[in-house]
Prior knowledge:
The complex is a heterodimer. In chain A, 45% of the residues lie in helices and 15% in strands. Chain A is of the alpha+beta class. Chain A has three domains: 7-92, no CATH class; 127-234, Beta Barrel (Butyryl-CoA Dehydrogenase, subunit A, domain 2), CATH 2.40.110; 251-393, Butyryl-CoA Dehydrogenase, subunit A, domain 3. In chain A, a hairpin with a 2-residue loop joins strand 1 (34-35) and strand 2 (38-39). The termini of chain A are far apart. Chain B folds into three domains: 7-116, Acyl-CoA dehydrogenase/oxidase, N-terminal domain (Butyryl-Coa Dehydrogenase, subunit A, domain 1), CATH 1.10.540; 121-210, Butyryl-CoA Dehydrogenase, subunit A, domain 2 (Beta Barrel), CATH 2.40.110; 213-360, Butyryl-CoA Dehydrogenase, subunit A, domain 3, CATH 1.20.140.10. In chain B, strand 9 (252-253) and strand 10 form a beta hairpin. In chain B, helix 8 packs antiparallel against helix 9, helix 8 (211-250) runs antiparallel to helix 11 (334-345) and helix 10 packs antiparallel against helix 12. Classes of the chains: A alpha+beta, B alpha+beta.
Amino acid sequence: MDLSYGPEYEAFRAEVRAFIAAHKDKAPRAGRGVTAGKAHKAVREWQGLLIENGYAARNIPKQYGGYGAPVDILKRVIIEEEFNSAGVSRGVGGQGPEMLVPTLLEHGTEEQKQRYIGPTIRGEMIWCQGYSEPGSGSDLASVQTRAVADGDDFLLTGQKIWTTTAHESQMMFGLFRTEAEASKHAGLSYLLVPMDTPGIEVRPLETMTGDTEFNEVFFTEARVPQTSIVGQRGEGWKIANATLTHERNMLASAAVLDGGLRNLVRLMEKERVNGGRVMDSPVLRDRLLRLQSRVMAMKYHSMRMLTARLKGEFPGVSALVTKLTGCEVSHQLNALGIDALGELGTLYEGSPRERDGGRWQSQHMFTLGLIIGGGTAQIQKNIISERGLGMPREPKPQARA
Amino acid sequence: MDFALSEEQELLASTLRRYLDEECPITRVRELVADAAGNDGGTWKALCELGIAGLLIPEEFGGSELGLLDAAVAAECLAWGGAPAPFLGTAVMAPVALCEAGSPEQRARWLPGLASGSTRVGVAANELASRRDGAGVEVRDGRLHGTALMVEGGPDANFFLVPTEAGTRLAWVDAQADGVTCKRLTTIDRTRGFAELHFDATPVADWLGGEGGARRATQRMLDAGRVILAADILGASERTLELAVAYAMQRKQFERIIGSFQAVKHMCAEMVAELEPARSLVWYAAHAFDHVPEEATVTALHAKAHLSEIGPFIVRTATEVHGGIGFTDEQNLHYWFKRVGVDRQLLGAPEALREQAAREQGWIE
């Protein structure tokens, strides 16, 4: 075991720190989001600077507008660590750069790469993900939204749900059923769909947090050219699956847990009740320390997973637990934040006496969404027991009839 | 960046597991522990021949001079096998204390016997974490007086290591010295021996370290002991999980193997989801003991506290997966259940450890 990064990487870390120190004043503040299908101007300018210096789109080839460095996982980790610890924006994120771009690099045509990757990584083209449907949640491969061939086009009809940022996106990547006769998994294709296509209607879906980051998207014979397919007809499930594991691990970052714990310690040291600090309550303190154990375990676990990636090994069952355990710990951290504030922890939406902008409540609810989204906790347990432990799938009901 | 076991550590683990699997399977453990006098049938001697006793001892004294992570790997394997072995005190806490605080003469006097396995040490550290009324050892006129409870390996020890005066003095005591009484205690865990010691004007063979040295050595030995107990829980939990999955894959009910029911699969997945991050915590705490000294105490406290929470969850869930048969004596699962039950309480129960971790981090006075 050797937890040092070595001189080459420490030198790189120093470069990243120097960049952040020199330029952090130009970084957009949190909350500068998306307008009219593009990232906010300040975010786009910042993103341009990041790409130019190799701190965003680092491994995207130059001909598609990236920085073009060879893949070096440790350098990526160092960039992430330094930007996180400085609290500086990482630039343009979201499902376009995180999920679509890697998919296009692997499966897209040259024309698709030329057309979409550059604007996406620059924040000029915001994407949403059209996977889930009202009838296809955990059983994602059962999606029913049809793409019927009509001349050189497909006609899309059906409905998507849980579509993050659909109302502010220019484009959607998604799964559509092109092969009506094929089996469930073999009937899907991965299509790229402009959101201004006639026949597409977006309705916001307010969640329990009060935010409307999700939407429902309705398709009524929306016409897109057949060239908008990524890969071959019927390959959609395979192509989409490659990025789903990535999404799961995005949802439970150890760095976020660590930051959450630090905020919680600060809160419990600062907040006072009945003449003393909340930290002085033995019961709440014990809950804090229990969570600290779990956050530490997840932090060292992520180092173990990183090591496996560096060695090009699949870390086996241990890699499959990150989403399940991480999201649960995150939810419990926020629950303790609320309890630390007690009755004042219920204040919301800018109420007088609200603490930390109501964040403990909104994150408590949001992390419940994370436990459900990206494959529910129960689906994760199926994955762990089936792929990790080699246990059999639940037999299908019809097989028993 | 390499957060993984080395090839040598993997080899140590596979060697130990193979030895335990072939020479000391749980059916053999069962025969051995039936002997109330604690005769281990040569198991410890055989393990010492594999180098288990000298892992942490410098080469000049016959050891292999490895780190606590190596010892943690060994502890995990021993617990995985349910092995009757006095590893905690004899192979870890006593060598750590001697290496930290012993003078060159003291180290030369005691470490070779520890490395070969001929010296067995009961470390009377329980009172540092949990002092019952009437327990505790004090020094009067240079001799020991008092009582120490729950001394692991005590019944078979030929020496005792006794921290006194709130951890500021460390006494090395011959088990045959005047005024020593050693009474075997019976815990739920038959795989390891525990004793209650009485000292009545007992002479001390060696005092280890001055006040500062003894205090530091006592803390180091506690940190190491807690990491090793965490590793012990890890190994025992891991074994019960393996047994539960194997059982679920062959037991049939309702014309299906029960491992095809999601209710059962999810129990197994929940065990893994707790076990794997906990393994990373144990590794890190063991690594920190040798390489990140400023984090050693807090990570040791957390490792022991956390494994003491998830271990009992895993061994009970594994027992439930077995259904009624898991509750029987004959299935042998209970050896690990009981081992975890004892580990949880030794050198501080989780609540006390967390309280100390809060103090160590300056969150409370």
